[in-house]
Amino acid sequence: MGLKLANVVPWGRSLPEYIKMFALSDRDLSLSILDCAAGPASFNAELTHKGGNVISCDPIYQFGVGDIAKQIDATYTTIIQQVSANLDRYVWRDIDSPAQLGQVRMSAMGLFLEDFPKGLQNGRYMLESLPQLSFATQQFDLALCSHFLFAYSKQLSETFHYEAIAEMCRVAKEVRIFPLLTISGEPSPYLHTIIETLTQQGYQPEIQSVNYEFQRGGNQMLKICKPLFFNK
To answer: How many domains does the chain have?
Structure first.
């Protein structure tokens, strides 16, 4: 059955996981990056420490560290209980148990919580909500979205998905979205229609396999590029 969540919850991942989920090369990591619906991921903190250029945006950034930590604690209990009840839906390779999953996620989110006050002050964390962003057109080289679009297909409409992806394509030269499964483990019902619509709009969407799989079957991302002549 997989996870069953009524709403989007804060659950963050690390730089090494981002590198695998989005097939990020050393060159990719040197680009100007926007992490959309980033939540409490440690990607920003870790990449900034290595000299990277990344802005994370999420509505959760309206809250202080204490309130975000409380939301994370509540999410932890829900996620670990549901994963433990559906072990066969996951690939226990890099992470070998629900207990280790909790440790890995809480470690990443702990790094985020430590970095958040300074990053917020420096403008690396911004209160922004898809499907409308305040950034300039093509302000970023690369926009990423982890475990939000397609993952929450049951909670967010197809129209929301298209508008959010189109907005990411506006503010960045390339967009990558992972995974293409819902949080309960089924293929998103919106994926192929959105790919067709993006193609008709002049984009170049492509499904790519990646070297990351925790949800069983969840080892693909959607990569969206613009032709050189495309000025939308």
So the answer is: 1
Beta strands in 7-85 (DSSP E): 32-36, 53-57
CA atoms within 13 A on the CB side of 218: 27
How many whole angstroms separate alpha carbon 130 and alpha carbon 147? 14
147: domain CATH number is: 3.40.50.150
pLDDT in tens, 169-183: 999 999 999 999 999
As given in the structure block, the two tokens for residue 229 are 């002549």
User: Do the domain assignments include residue 4?
Assistant: no
Mark 134-156 as b/e (b = at least 16 C-beta within 10 Å).
ebeeebbbbbbbbbbbbbbbeeb
| Count of all residues that appear for the chain in the document | 232
Residue 77 near residue 83, CB atoms below 8 Å: no
Establish if 3 belongs to a structural domain: no
Prediction pTM value: 0.94
Residue 71 phi, psi (nearest 5): -65, -40
